[in-house]
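Example record for the data management plan.
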Amino acid sequence: MTMPGAGERYLDSPFGLGTMATAVLDHRDDVIGWDGAAQDLYGYTPEEVLGKPARAFLVPVDGRPLFDPDRPGGSGGEKRALRRRDGSVVRVVLYALKLGPAEARPATAAWGVVSVEAERMERWATDQAMLNGLSTQSPISLTVLDAEARVTWVNPTTTETFGIGPDEWYGRQVRDLLPDGEIISPGLRGRSLESVIEHVLRTGESVIDLHYRSSVPGAPTTRQHVWSCSYFRLQDAAGHHLGVCESAFDITERYEAQRRLELLSRSSSIGTTLDGVRTCEEFLAVAVPDLADTGWVDLAESVLAGEEPVPWSASTPSRRVTGGGADLPADGRRLVLSLTAGAARLGTVTLLRTAPRGAFGDADRALAAELVARTAVCVDNGRRYARERATALLLQRNLLPQELPEHTAVETAHHYAPSTGPTGVGGDWYDVIPLSGARIGLVVGDVVGHGLDAAVTMGRLRTTVRALAALDLAPEELLGRLDALVGQARIGGDPEGANGMDPAVGARCLYLVYDAVHGRCAAAGAGHLPPVLVAPGGPAAPLEMPVGLPLGVGGLPFESAEFEIAERSLLALFTDGLVTGPERDPDAGVADLCRTLTEYPDLRPDETRDRIVASGLPAHPRDDIALLLVRVHALAEDDMAGWRIDPDPAKVAGARASTNAQLEHWGLDAVGFAVELIVSELVTNAIRYGAPPVYLRLLRDKDRALICEVSDGRETSPHLRRARPDEEGGRGLFLVAQLADRWGTRYTREGKAIWAEVPLATEEPGPDLFGDVLGAGLGD
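Corresponding structural encoding:
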């Protein structure tokens, strides 16, 4: 870019031909010459003034004579106010010059009178003073370079700043005088100064505030300075390129301060994750190359393992986690800091500067200490997180079922993936609970929050659900009792730490009971997503059931839904981590799950699980993912038998006979004695202490167990007790408990059912076993 108005400013000089008003007077002071500039300035044409006295046209306002009659050789720079032809006043600076031989007398000499407008003259004088001061007194270094970046002129400031005399500057290139110099401006870093000068000279585009770093040749140290340089093209009035002018001033202190502020602002990029190694990499990305040329970080092995830091010493096991080693300079260009959080030393940070860069100053060390302190806090947070996450994950895995129980009524498969986000492991869980009467309970739920508290709360909830499920409660009643316990903060936790509220408040849970005898399901939910059902030959779809409120927040009763479920149907119970994510809502996630389940309806549950996991689950989920797949199987008709028993003690023998006949039909003679005794005791109790109607039911759970159930119309539950030797009764339930693998009471709409499970043994128990049982019952 051409300097604005360079040619015009040159022609606009007070002494330019177009700006000086010139008149020539003879020895009588008559006008004998009058140029166009004089006409423009005073308003008189040459015809009006030539041959006439000058005093008639050059009239001073103050009335004093225009010239001293006895002026010896002329006058210069006299300010006068003269009147124009139109009567206006113009202020001028007059110059009177004697024309002709020097020895001529003033009275006989001709005179040249030059008039310059005073305002123009003052402006020019100011410009000249400014240019003179800029070139000789200004603290700005000025250098003029030719097209090949050779120095053609320098001002005194340049000489004083760099300690190089003018004779050493002229004709030499900048790179020869400042061999270690480099351009460090963003966008221009790496370019040569010659290319910048060539660009300015060729295009006329000025370059402003270019940052150039170099040492000062005459300085006693090799400290690097930073200069703010600007370049503009010089040209004459005709437009010829004369070279490039460089103005430069030292901005080292300002640059360093600005750089430190920028580094502090960039320090927010340290600790974006809870990975200690990644945090150290982020620290070096901030510190190098602006603060140091290279560096590295050593962390204690205990910190990398997520353990408590050990006391630091020269023998402390550590590992270089990022950066590379280098020869350590012996001067102040090495900076080693402790990576310390509180009183614990986590490792060390080493920063290096290489020649010709100068040593670390006090401000550099303070900045480095602040960056290292931030890094230490982030590394320690990552260590604490890793330790807590490992503890929570271990606790959660131990609290979750290691293996799901095998059951004739269901085939199961499960998948659990803990959260890998910064908030830590969540509190999702699932469970499969065998119940009485060839029924099975299915549970899935999740706890609000993450970390160790969530894992502990999950364990408490899972244990409580299993305990309530053992009471054979209906789904809505089980959730109601669980909700009451959570709302009253009675299932553990730290009420004081949770503002008097159980941390399980807000947890969501789904409880479903499958009855293999009737092929029915009953389900209730506490704020949880409903399960998805895939019936044989049909599409997958969520079950329509009441959702309910999360635990501990409503105090309202829960509702359950009952529905038929066909043989070999597949149920999918899951937490919201499976179907939600940063870019999809639960509805879209459930729709994706339904499409996957519909596409593979006949696979085994474990094969279906693998398809779901491979269909696009995140490798690093932000929330826990729990999935429980269950294929149901109804109990075959041939595996069930039942009789109504009249409430007559004489009918007990008939019940035993029917039982023995059914066992013989099933080929279960090996457990005949135990089952016959259990049936006799339970039927007798129902007739004696219960109310009609009385039913006896036998269920064969394949090769696992034989289930005996006796129900009656009274809700009073019997209690197990140890009879004294002198008592004739009270030993029935004790014998049942000894012979059965499990037994219990289940309440029904009509009353209650007492049930007992006898494991199917391959050999009939010998007489010694029954002797021991009977002896224990009699108090022997």
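Summary line stored alongside the record: The two ends are 118 Å apart (CA to CA).
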